[in-house]
Amino acid sequence: MFPFSYTAVTDVPAALAAGRRGGRYIAGGTTLVDLMRETVERPEHLVDIDALPLRDISATAGGGLRLGALARMADAARHPLVRTGFPVVSQALELSASPQLRNMASLGGNLMQRTRCTYFRDVSAACNKRRPGAGCAALDGYNRTHAILGTSDACVATHPSDLAVALTALDATVHLLGPDGARPVAIGDFLLLPGGTPQHEHAIRPGELITSIEIPAHPRPLASGYLKVRDRRSYEFALCSAAVVLHVRDGVIRAAKVAAGGVGTVPWKLHAVERHLVGRRPAPELWIRAAQHAAAGARPLRHNGFKAELLTRTVERQLRVVGEDR
Ligand code: SF4
Which of 178, 278, 280, 319 has a Cα at 20 to 30 A from 41? Predict the structure, then answer.
């Protein structure tokens, strides 16, 4: 380890003041402490925000949800409003990490977690995300688990969060509060593509806090679900995942929201799949045809060419599961 200071705060103004002075926020600590132990991250000042009153989960007008940023993953997963209103979120949370980690980790921290690229966590390896300009060991290294969508010459690491995939499908908004006040950011704008600056992963400004995550109201009835494909059945990150949300009325798909995880440098919104579904009648052939659009634009690396086919099959299967479970 290395020396750092630690301050615990109990109210939001005190947190923001500490953040303005350069403090690094920590809540459950399930990501940051690991990275500090490995010296991948070396914050000088930690600000413990765990006691802030940001854990509420409540309904919004019209049938949406507001999730406090410090709500625990386990609490959110079993909350009746989440479980009944947006099962895709409950399922994504329950398929994440381990029960012990879900009891500790906050929703905001889940969105802020960093990639599981092994080269990123190995301080002896070249990594543009850890040290800009150093190069990317994954490009010529073992890249079976890396991304096929949204990659750049600088970085091909996948985004690790299951929750973020469900929130991307649902067009959620991340609410931030900082020195310049409050601002909402669409989740698709909050998580950044690597481009030439993979060290910047989130559209969060110095000193800003995530206060809540808002899922907008969706037309009802709404069927949704999350499928995660991984090398082992528990405590493993996704090789590929699919979040599917369908609104079907009078036998026609009126709205479709689909996103994939484990394949993109950010959760990947499958717009072409969504477009293929809307206005059509649910049918086995429709799921197959729509899923053919899932891997459009994929750029496989040496060891992860299988992910394009896996993505197509994962999306098709989850469309079928959700589409036939309405
Ligand atoms: Fe670093 Fe990204 Fe390359 Fe992994 S893929 S080594 S995180 S630059």
Answer: 178
CA-based end-to-end distance of the chain: 52
Q: Whose CA is closest to 222, among 198, 260, 248, 259?
A: 248
180-203 per-position pLDDT tens digit: 999 999 999 999 999 999 999 999
pLDDT digits (tens, 9 = 90+) for 90-117: 999 999 999 999 999 999 999 999 999 9
Give, using CA atoms, the residue closest to atom 2 of ligand 1: 155
DSSP lists the bridge partners of residue 25 as 47
Give the single-character DSSP code of 235. Answer: S
Is 141 among the domain residues?
Answer: no
Q: How many domains does the chain have?
A: 2
Determine the residue of 40, 117, 142 to mutate for testing ligand 1's pocket, defined as the one with the most ligand atoms within 8 A of the Cβ atom: 117
| Residue 153 covered by a domain | no
Is residue 207 domain-resident?
Answer: no
CATH number for the domain spanning 275: value is 3.30.390.50
Lining ligand 1 with CB less than 6 A are 115, 117, 119-120, 127-129, 136-138, 155-157, 198
Distance CA 254, CA 280 (A): 8
In-domain check, residue 118:
no
Bridge partners (DSSP) listed for residue 177: 182, 209
Which of 31, 51, 71 terminates a domain? The answer is: 51
CATH label of the domain that carries residue 15 = 3.30.43
How confident is the model over 222-269, as pLDDT tens digits? 999 999 999 999 999 999 999 999 999 999 999 999 999 999 999 999
